[in-house]
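Try this one yourself first.
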């Protein structure tokens, strides 16, 4: 699979997972392990740039925990408005 095709397939798979599981929240490692279908496996390192793009576009937001782990989840949508992109502090 070409790199662009793979990127698109990963993006679609993540967005599909979020539609089916709107309360999902996990680290990049957990997303790589649990959110992707068996036929489309990826490492957390491979997913990291895609997760960052999904945060910038407003599809995901991230938060850091006290132990240094970063979690990703779907942002809560404001009534009648699309989710706002995450902004770095």
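Now uncover the answer:
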């Amino acid at each position: 699979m070409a790199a662009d095709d793979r990127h698109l397939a990963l993006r679609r798979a993540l967005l599909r997972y979020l539609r089916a599981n709107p309360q999902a929240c996990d680290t990049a490692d957990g997303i790589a392990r649990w959110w992707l279908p068996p036929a489309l496996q990826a490492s957390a390192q491979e997913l990291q740039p895609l997760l960052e793009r999904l945060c910038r576009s407003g599809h995901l937001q991230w938060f850091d925990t006290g132990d240094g782990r970063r979690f990703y989840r779907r942002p809560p949508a404001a009534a009648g408005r699309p989710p706002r992109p995450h902004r770095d502090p």
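Discussion: The longest helix spans residues 3-20. The radius of gyration is 13 Å.
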